[in-house]
Specification:
Oligomer: heterodimer
Number of strands of chain B: 0
Shape of chain A: globular
Strand content of chain B: under 5%
Number of helices of chain B: 7
Shape of chain B: elongated
CATH topology of the largest domain in chain A: Thrombin, subunit H
CATH superfamily of the largest domain in chain A: Rod shape-determining protein MreC, domain 1
Helix content of chain A: 25-40%
CATH architecture of the largest domain in chain A: Beta Barrel
Largest sheet of chain B: none
Radius of gyration of chain B: 17 Å
Number of domains of chain A: 3
Number of strands of chain A: 12
Number of helices of chain A: 4
CATH class of the largest domain in chain A: Mainly Beta
Chain lengths: 304, 175
């Protein structure tokens, strides 16, 4: 081995020059980058290393855990009592809906049968706890304590008590990574609750969300609620996602700038629910056929 | 392969042990794993310890070590494979190149040499991720390098401690 900038006398055998070694290693790193980003070949290697690192990672979590436990210990009794009262009040408030839910669901099922529509699949959920925010500062991801050992697969939707939180994007045997909806590369197909306008919600910087590519005169108002449209086959339709905070209509741009805020506690820690995968949507051609069906039915009725 | 704390010092140190280099890097890695969220100003411990050993022992810690720890860091941080390894590689190369020069300076000026190296490491990571379409994390991200440079003082002391020990303990000898 030789030191950068100081070539050894030629009679010592010291391996390749530093610049040559640098070139080899840099090429290797770039190959890793391309393989990972473009072809996703390295997931298996990543899983292997992650499993080996798991005990170390859990150990590194202990200081934070201890700190949190200390905080909990010193949480005063009054705070707990207040929280308890709050929860009771919320329970009463939602009791009205919950008590009627079963009845409504049965009624809905009957109506759907009458209309000859596909029944809504009940989707199972699994409770998980957010362990920590991933270190990577360039993305918004959290790590939860359920993995492929608990039958979690990539692509499952994650919700908390208020709304959609994100989507499982990478699964390790005992943990999985959830990309939050505030991540720049995460898109959620949504519908505006007030008028049913369908669009796609993207993450924006600063823990906010953005509705892109909506015309400057689109019917969006501050305060509008956005729910999932279910068109992607990932999120169930009707889950609350975000609330419109600000709408800038600048005549200089053809699109309006619409800033939204997530309703779920996206940047907080706590327990979340990982929803099961929905049944795959039928392929495009079948969809086209089913669109024709009602027309035929109407014709048939006319003949009668 | 420095045998003194700095080249202008008169004190002769014990030779460094290879296992201690690896151990300190592993300790830095462990510190990096502590989940602090996206707290601003937290230094990249692996980069710091790596820079230290590449400056002091360029023949024992170099680009191979940097690459291995870079890949480990990539997995642990959940970032793109190759991001940390590329940045650490360039850091190791630059630190190795500066090793003959840096050790002639007192600690404060050494820290001033290390600061641009750490900043460049972070810059490489930012550029790698921006090219692949990630979000810019904000200028506060670079604050970690400044904390790292400040930590150069205690780090030098702690990591040289095993080498400050006398060869054989002798009750009658003054040192």
């Amino acid at each position: 081995m030789s030191v950068v900038g100081h070539p050894p006398p030629p009679f010592f055998k010291r391996g390749p020059a530093p610049l040559a070694r640098l070139a080899v290693f840099v090429l290797l790193s770039l190959a890793l980058l391309v393989l990972d980003l473009k072809y996703r070949y390295l997931e298996l290697a990543r899983q292997g290393i992650a499993v080996a690192l798991y005990p170390l990672q859990r150990a590194a979590y202990t200081p934070v855990d201890l700190y949190e436990q200390l905080g909990e210990y010193f949480t005063s009794l009054t705070a707990v009592q207040r929280e308890n009262a709050d929860l009771k009040r919320k329970e009463l408030e939602s009791a009205n809906w919950l008590l009627r839910q079963q009845h409504l669901e049965l009624e809905n099922q009957r109506l759907r049968e009458l209309l000859d529509m596909k029944a809504r699949q009940p989707v199972p959920g699994m409770l998980a706890e957010i362990l920590y925010t991933a270190r990577d500062p360039f993305a918004r991801r959290v790590v939860v304590d359920k993995g492929s050992q608990h039958d979690i697969t990539a692509g499952q939707a994650v919700v908390d008590e208020a709304g959609v939180l994100g989507q499982v994007t990478r699964v390790f045997p005992l943990q999985s990574e959830v990309t939050l909806i505030t991540d720049k590369n995460q898109a959620v197909p949504v519908r505006i609750l007030r008028n049913g306008l369908r669009t796609v919600l993207f993450g924006a910087s600063g823990g906010q969300l953005e509705l892109r590519f909506l015309a400057a005169n689109a019917d969006v108002q501050p305060g509008d609620h956005l729910v999932t449209s279910g068109l992607d086959g990932v999120y169930l339709p009707g889950l609350p996602v975000a609330k419109v905070v600000r709408v800038d209509r600048d005549a200089a741009y053809s699109f309006a700038r619409i800033v939204c805020e997530p309703v779920a506690g996206v940047e907080r820690h706590g327990q979340v629910l990982i929803l099961g995968l929905r049944e795959a949507l039928p392929p495009q051609i079948e969809e086209a056929e089913s669109r024709d069906k009602p027309v035929k039915g109407r014709k048939a009725r006319k003949k009668e | 392969m420095a045998i003194q704390p700095t080249h202008s010092s008169r004190r002769i140190l014990l030779p460094v042990k290879q296992w201690f280099i690896l151990f300190s890097l592993a300790a830095g890695f462990f510190l990096n794993l502590i989940p602090l969220g996206h707290a601003i100003g937290v230094p990249d411990w692996v980069a710091l310890v790596l820079a230290f050993w590449c400056v002091r022992e360029p023949q024992r810690a170099g680009m191979g070590t940097a690459f291995v720890f870079g890949v480990l860091m990539d997995v642990a941080a959940g970032s793109v494979m190759g991001q940390h390894s590329l940045a650490y590689l360039l850091l190791a190369y630059a630190a190795g190149g500066l090793s003959r020069r840096i050790l002639w300076f007192p600690l404060a000026q050494q820290a001033l040499h290390v600061l641009p190296l750490l900043l460049a490491t972070q810059l490489v990571m930012v550029l790698t991720r921006l090219v692949t379409g990630a979000d810019f994390p904000g200028w506060g991200y670079f604050l970690g390098s400044f904390t790292g440079a400040l930590l150069w003082f205690p780090l030098t002391f702690v990591l040289l401690l095993p080498q400050y020990q006398p060869v054989e303990r002798d009750e009658n000898r003054p040192i």
